[in-house]
């Protein structure tokens, strides 16, 4: 029996990325037993950075992770937008104390592995959570009364709810019969590198987020690991020829250097230094082919019956608003609220999962749409580029600040 006299409920979670672990933490805090299945042999994240807006940091603080997060995060003092061709400053948004005052939480930047590890450690100290590695969901069956998860290793396990947090190529989503096919290949490529700032010349070290906008490309750099490391991601337009599902590819820095050859000297200097200094422990850059899906169209795309989707499984997006993992963590918080209510026998679980979906899908759709639009604005050419630069000059801070995003957490708080 649960603390409230109702039966103990069991959540099955497919996927142990940032979204799956956040869901496990939220479900466990809501009083559920959790069984999580991750297909890889180790729980880990890729070596790249991640930005977390105050909307996401507020959720993590609410879960009691403030001190742990502060230990691994960097706190950039501002966002500076620069023209990648001339180097000119286009706009600035102060972060630091201003974000804290305005939104009740800071804007932070972290190494993904540090965030993943922090969530993993928080989950491991919870009661009644079982984490299974090397366990790949093959299919599930929702009978209306229970849901059964089947793994490719032949395991069958029954629970009250199944959370599909299995990422971009989600099998749970595939089985929900949303009839929308595979993710879209966007034709955008992300080159990512991360290295100790001490290995870079002093002039290139930085404690701010810098976004360099150029025709058909942009570059974002920010500190991680308490400011000791620098993360750099360069987005260019092009296609990956090999298997997209394996995502992470070692790459040839020469392709990136060719793509940015017409940009300003400070940006070329940064990319060249990262290439040279980052190469001491293997290839400096890793390459991702970016995929997404069109913005969500309804709650049915996020929950049906006893099955709910969360994170990239539900709403994969381009990373141009830096909120994909953020929306996964917000999803998890909303899911936790629904699961807490489900311990009361007066509530039907499918109705609560529907409410979760209702409360989340519009905000997720809005973030997906805004990320898409940012891609067009960031990579603009001609008149659109001129208009962008002029608007940023006049309205800089107003355009870069996003109260609807940083101040809210779900659809009915917009
Ligand atoms: C270049 C780039 C920059 C980004 N920057 C930011 C940023 O600054 N801020 C931000 O918030 N977001 C950012 N994102 C987005 C963010 O990375 C994703 O939205 C987030 O990682 C999604 O987490 P997830 O747990 O939903 O999915 P994933 O991280 O894909 O995790 C899915 C997990 O499920 C497992 N899995 C898959 N299939 C199965 C199966 N059948 N059975 C069991 N397990 C399975 C996988 O192994 C994986 O561990 C960025 C993305 C990119 C590409």
| CATH-derived architecture | 3-Layer(bba) Sandwich
Q: How would a crystallographer describe the biggest sheet? A: 8 strands, mixed
* Tally of domains: 1
Q: Percent of residues in beta strands?
A: 15-25%
Distance between the termini: 37 Å
Which blocks of ≥5 consecutive residues have pLDDT under 50?
none
CATH domain fold name: FAD/NAD(P)-binding domain
Helix content: 25-40%
Q: What best-fitting shape do the alpha-carbon axes yield? A: globular
What molecules are bound to this protein?
A: flavin-adenine dinucleotide
Instruction: List how many beta strands DSSP finds.
Output: 19
CATH superfamily: FAD/NAD(P)-binding domain
> What spatial order of strands do you see in the largest sheet?
5-4-13-14-15-12-17-16
Structural account:
The chain has 414 residues and is α/β, with parallel strands linked by helices. It has a single domain, classed as FAD/NAD(P)-binding domain (3-Layer(bba) Sandwich), CATH 3.50.50. Helix content is 36%, strand content 25%. The protein has twelve helices and 19 strands. It has helices spanning 18-29, 54-62, 66-72, 96-103, 112-124, 171-175, 253-259, 265-278, 324-342, 349-378, 382-400, 403-406, and strands spanning 10-14, 33-37, 49-52, 78-83, 89-94, 108-111, 129-132, 137-142, 147-151, 156-159, 161-164, 184-196, 209-214, 217-224, 229-237, 249-250, 286-292, 303-304, 307-309. The strands form four sheets. It has an eight-stranded mixed sheet with strand order 5-4-13-14-15-12-17-16. Strand 13 and strand 14 (217-224) form a beta hairpin. The chain is globular. 47% of the residues are buried. Bound molecules: flavin-adenine dinucleotide. Flavin-adenine dinucleotide binds next to helix 1, strand 3, strand 12, strand 17 and helix 9.
């Amino acid at each position: 029996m649960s603390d409230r006299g109702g039966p103990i409920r069991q959540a099955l979670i497919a996927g142990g990325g940032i979204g799956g672990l956040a869901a496990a933490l939220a479900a466990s805090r809501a009083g559920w037993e959790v069984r999580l299945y991750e297909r890889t042999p180790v729980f880990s994240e890729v070596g790249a950075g991640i930005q977390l807006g105050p909307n996401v940091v507020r959720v993590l603080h609410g879960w009691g992770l403030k001190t742990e997060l502060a230990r691994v995060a960097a706190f950039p003092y501002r966002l500076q937008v620069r023209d990648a061709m001339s180097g000119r400053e286009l706009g600035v948004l102060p972060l630091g104390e201003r974000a804290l005052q305005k939104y009740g939480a800071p804007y932070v930047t972290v190494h993904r592995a540090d965030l993943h590890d922090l969530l993993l450690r928080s989950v491991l100290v919870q009661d009644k959570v079982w984490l299974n590695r090397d366990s790949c969901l093959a299919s599930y069956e929702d009978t209306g009364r229970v849901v059964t998860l089947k793994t490719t290793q032949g395991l069958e396990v029954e629970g009250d709810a199944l959370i599909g947090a299995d990422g971009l190529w989600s099998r749970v989503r595939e089985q929900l019969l949303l009839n929308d096919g595979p993710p879209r290949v966007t034709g955008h490529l992300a080159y990512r590198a991360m290295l100790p700032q001490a290995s870079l010349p002093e002039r290139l070290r930085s404690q701010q987020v810098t976004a360099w906008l150029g025709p058909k490309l942009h570059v974002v750099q920010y500190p991680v690991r308490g400011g000791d490391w620098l993360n750099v991601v360069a987005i260019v337009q092009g296609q990956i020829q090999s298997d997209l599902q394996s995502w992470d590819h070692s790459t040839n820095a020469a392709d990136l250097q060719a793509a940015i050859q017409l940009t300003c000297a400070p940006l070329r200097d940064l990319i060249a230094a990262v290439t040279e200094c980052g190469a001491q422990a293997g290839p400096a850059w890793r390459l991702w082919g970016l995929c997404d899906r069109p913005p969500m169209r309804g709650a049915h795309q996020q929950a049906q019956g006893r099955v709910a989707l969360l994170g990239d499984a539900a709403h994969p997006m381009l990373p141009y608003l830096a909120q994909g993992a953020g929306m996964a963590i917000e999803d998890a918080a909303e899911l936790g609220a629904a699961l807490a209510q489900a311990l009361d026998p007066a509530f039907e679980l499918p109705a609560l999962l529907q409410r979760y979906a209702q409360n989340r899908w519009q905000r997720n759709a809005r973030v997906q749409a805004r990320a898409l639009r940012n891609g067009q604005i960031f990579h603009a050419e001609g008149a659109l580029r001129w208009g962008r630069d002029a608007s940023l000059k006049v309205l800089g801070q107003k355009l870069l600040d996003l109260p609807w995003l940083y101040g809210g957490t779900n659809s009915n708080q917009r």
